[in-house]
Design brief:
single chain, about 180 residues, mainly beta, Immunoglobulin-like, six-stranded antiparallel sheet, three-stranded antiparallel sheet, 1 helix, about 0% helix
Length: about 180
C-alpha cells in the first residue's frame, strides 16, 4: 500500500481560482483530518488563521474535497474550497519590524493528520494579482485610486470576442 499523501492541483496561483485537493494512499473508510494554517498581514498586525475538516476515505482510499463533505470541521457540505473560506482567526500579534502590503502573496500550509499526527504537509502560495499586471497608485488633482494595467497581451484575458485580436485590459479602482 502506498503512503498517504496530499495531492494539490492549481491551474493558476491567483486567489480567485479553484484549487483541487485530494488525499490518496488511505485505507477504505479511514478518517483523516486536513488542517489549513496561514498568516494574514494587515499593516503591522499579523493574524494567525486556521480551518480544518475530518473526512472519511472512499473504498479506494481517496479523499477528494470536491466530492465529499467533512464529517466534522469549520464548514459543512460538499465544497472543494470550504477549507479556504472557513479560515478563522486563532490569534493576532503586532509586528513592529515590517509593515506588509495588502496585495502580497499569501502562503498557506496544508497539513494531513491521522490520529493527531502530521503525516504529510504542503505549502502553496496564492496571489492577488497576476505577475503580468502593474499596479500604480494614483493621487492627482483630487483623483485617488489605483490603476491596474496588463503589461503584455494575453489570450486568456480578452475584451473582444474576435479571435484575431489579442487585447489586454486596463482597470482603474477609485477610492471614495
Amino acid at each position: 500500500m502506498e503512503k498517504p499523501q496530499l495531492q494539490i492541483h492549481m491551474e493558476s496561483p491567483l486567489l480567485d481560482r479553484p484549487v483541487s485537493i485530494r488525499v490518496t494512499g488511505l485505507s477504505g473508510g479511514q478518517n483523516v483530518t486536513l488542517r489549513f494554517q496561514r498568516k494574514s498581514y494587515w499593516g503591522s498586525t499579523i493574524y494567525s488563521m486556521e480551518s480544518h475538516g475530518t473526512y472519511m476515505a472512499d473504498e479506494e482510499g481517496v479523499v477528494d474535497l470536491q466530492q465529499i463533505s467533512p464529517i466534522e470541521g469549520t464548514y459543512k457540505g460538499i465544497d472543494g474550497m470550504g477549507l479556504f473560506w472557513s479560515l478563522r482567526i486563532k490569534h493576532t500579534e503586532e509586528n513592529s519590524k515590517e509593515v506588509f502590503t495588502k496585495l502580497q502573496p499569501q502562503s498557506l500550509t496544508i497539513l494531513l493528520e491521522n490520529d493527531g499526527k502530521v503525516i504529510d504537509t504542503k505549502i502553496i502560495t496564492r496571489k492577488w494579482i497576476d505577475d503580468d499586471v502593474i499596479r500604480t497608485p494614483v493621487n492627482e488633482k483630487g483623483v485617488v485610486g489605483t490603476f491596474f494595467m496588463l503589461t503584455i497581451p494575453r489570450q486568456d484575458l480578452r475584451l473582444s470576442s474576435s479571435e484575431d485580436r489579442k487585447v489586454g485590459f486596463m482597470s482603474f479602482l477609485l477610492l471614495y
